Amino acid sequence: MSGETILYVDDVRAGYSIGRRFIDAVSGVTLKLFYGEIFGLAGESGCGKSTLLRIIYGYIEPPLRRVKGSIILRSKTEEFRLHELSMDELKGRVWWRYITWIPQGAMNVLNPTIRVRDHFIEMFRLHSNIDKREAHKITVEYLEALGLSREVVDAYPTQLSGGMRQRVVIALALLFNPILVLADEPTSALDVVTQRVLLEQLLKLQEKFNFTLVLVSHDMDVHGVLTNRIGIMYAGKIVEVGPTGKVFAEPLHPYTKALIAALPRLGDRITRKGLSGSPPDLSNPPPGCRFHPRCPYAMDVCRREEPPIVDIEKNRVVSCWLYVKR
Ligand code: SF4
Fold first, then answer.
1. Is the CB of 291 under 6 A from ligand 1?
2. Domain 5-98+180-191+211-263+274-288, what fold?
3. How far is ligand 1, taken at its centre, from the CA of residue 309, in Å?
4. DSSP for 235-268?
5. Does the pTM exceed 0.90?
6. Which atom of ligand 1 has the smallest separation from the CA of 255?
7. Where are the domains of the chain?
8. pLDDT by residue (tens digit) across 55-108?
9. Is the C-beta atom of 297 inside 6 A of ligand 1?
């Protein structure tokens, strides 16, 4: 990790317009990502992790819409104001070569009626001018790096297991050496053993190519093992960001504390209790701090006013009134 910023997300608000309702799924998110880091986005399902990833990528189709905010990607030589680009411009100039997205389900990317080989050939046709022979050689190299045999190139996606399909999608995503890879629960549909192997392979590729990886997962163990820094989301907001080791050892935000406290520990004889209550309805979120109805430390100010983002130390921020000096 170089400490150089690759992505600035500034005050982004986005959500889903359904009839007259607006589901405020990402609310005022500000975030910086650094070159070569593995950044984890954690939080309960429905907290806005996947929506934030989609907004950063720019794959925005109704009912999803971005209401405000800017997203700036910096390569070593160029700067892209992603929020100002249409999907066609992103497709032509940014996706695959600079940013890629690994979705939850491989079949969102793969066409069941065409062979694996032809997915790769089409990608090379669109994004490079190498010949078919070279394309085949590179395809096999990528598939083998992810533990797949060369015979996989001749298969149709439906002839492969879920784990194999997800590896094919990861190989496609990494084909043009992107600088930023957005992985949305990339292994959540797989069994535990396959998950582990696949995440290890992804980690090795990240080390080899040194891309920045944003990993969305609700599984705190995955974050604990894989990520350098972590952002905790609650009800559409990032409530804490910090180096993963520090956040696990000394969580600051009451929600992060509850997430960490619920993790099973070696030697536990009792089942640890999760957080009581449920996340708010994002079409009508509570005023003030969105966590206040579930927070054991809630004060009057929490019910009235949204907490500011407080810098605790370098790269460590929390959004909570408990840390505001008054
Ligand atoms: Fe709890 Fe208040 Fe902090 Fe929100 S701002 S997490 S309610 S103490």
1. yes
2. Rossmann fold (3.40.50)
3. 12
4. TTEEEEEEEHHHHHHS--SHHHHHHHHTS--TT-
5. yes
6. 6
7. 5-98+180-191+211-263+274-288, 106-177
8. 999 999 999 999 999 999 999 999 999 999 999 999 999 999 999 999 888 787
9. yes
